[in-house]
Amino acid sequence: MYTSFDETHLEKIVRLLKSHQSKFLSGQKLSQSLNLSRAAVWKYIKKLQSLGYKIQSRQNLGYKLVSKPDYLLPWELTDGLQTDIFGRKIYYFDTIDSTQNFALRLASKPYENGSVVIAKRQSKGRGRLNRKWISPKGGIWLSILLKPNFEVWQVSLFPMLTSLALTKAVENVLKLKPRLKWPNDVTLNDKKVAGILIDASIESNKIDYLVIGVGINFRIEPRIVSRLLKNSQKFYGITSLVGNKEKADSVELVQEFLYELEQSYYKVMSNNLKGITKEWTKRSSTIGKNVTVSTPSGPVKGKAIAIDENGALILSSKGKIQRVLAGDVSYRN
Ligand code: BTN
Q1: Of 11, 192, 219, 290, which one has the fewest beta carbons inside 10 Å?
Q2: How far away, in angstroms, is 142 Cα from ligand 1 center?
Q3: Which CATH number is 7's domain given?
Q4: Best of 126, 180, 193, 216 to mutate for ligand 1, by most ligand atoms within 8 A of CB?
């Protein structure tokens, strides 16, 4: 595990090398700036190289950063992160059972509001409705822990707010136009590219804590994941946000997403959510379609006409209006 608060030497070396990009930085300068021995600097350089940083080292010249890995290492994420609360602490794992489970365990500790847990791979990723979530290398698997002073009804806003924040981040950073499938799937060409899972603990009608889990098929091989999911219920196909060889920076995408989501979080806090449903609807592929929603109490059919300010789906069928809070949508023609 690497964190944003323990690895200060690695973080400082990366920043110094970045600020000297394309030039060599002498080992002596590095060791002076960090107050470390030359041998210790060398040890950290080796560590960074093993993490995927390409660093040239030349006798008499020092070190030069050639490229960084496309992993969501904590110090890469904090470098340029424009949030105050989200990502104040970042935990990074090469492999973990589920970032969601780790974040849930953090909830009992102090000073963890806004902590972000990220993994390169998950061995037991969890999806909505107790489904499994296949989480190979190349995806973005993260959970955000919040311990806000919210009312229970405010939690139901988070699937909508999170999927919207992610969509905006994808638009801004990758210049793609994903769509939103109610309640919280993000799609590209009608296939799923990201899903959201919210776990909440409620005590005497107040939110004790909330964990927002986000799974993004960032740079994965859709065929491999599809094969593993084909027989699962409600599978409508998955795709990858970017292609295998395409140039795209997952760090920038996560930074932008955390920023957008934090803005929404402030809006919930100040009860200023005007315009959110409009923004969601604008990007929705669900509104206007004839749908079947499988809900815990059976299927509900109708035309999706709107989502309300709590994120519920409003269906109209034979002049009757129905409000659905949770379920899986399939489109009918
Ligand atoms: C869905 O079913 O659409 C929601 C999928 C959520 C997956 C993410 S990946 C990061 C976090 N950790 C988990 O185990 N699940 C969520």
Answers
A1: 290
A2: 8
A3: 1.10.10.10
A4: 126
Could you tell me the distance, in angstroms and rounded to a whole number, from the CA of residue 292 to the centre of ligand 1?
Answer: 23
CA dihedral 51, 71, 131, 307 (to 10 degrees): 160
The CA 33 to ligand 1 mean position distance, Å, reads 41
pLDDT digits (tens, 9 = 90+) for 115-163: 999 999 999 999 998 889 999 999 999 999 999 888 888 888 899 999 9
Residues 152 and 207 in one domain: yes
Judgement on whether residues 246 and 144 belong to the same structural domain of the protein:
yes
Atom 11 in ligand 1: which residue has the minimum CA distance?
Answer: 213
As to burial, measured by CB atoms within 10 angstroms (0-12 exposed, 13-18 middle, 19+ buried), residue 249 is middle
Nearest atom (ligand 1) to Cα of 139: 9
**Residues found in the chain:** 333
Give the three-class secondary structure for 234.
coil
Q: What is the pLDDT of residues 64-119, one digit of tens each?
A: 999 999 889 999 999 999 999 999 999 999 999 999 999 999 999 999 999 999 99
Three-state DSSP class for residue 208: strand
Q: Is the pTM of this model over 0.90?
A: yes
Residue 88 sits at the vertex; the CA angle it makes with 86 and 89, to the nearest 5 degrees, is: 115
Same domain assignment for residues 94 and 168: yes
Q: How far is the CA of 16 from the centre of ligand 1 (A)?
A: 35
What residues flank ligand 1, with Cβ below 6 Å?
98-100, 122, 125-128, 131, 133, 135, 141-143, 195-197, 213-215
What is d(CA 283, CA 184) in angstroms, rounded to the nearest whole number?
Answer: 12
Q: Contact, 287 vs 167, CB < 8 A?
A: no
Same domain, 255 and 304: no
Which residue out of 101, 116, 141, 211 has the highest number of ligand 1 atoms within 8 Å of its CB and is therefore the one to mutate? 141
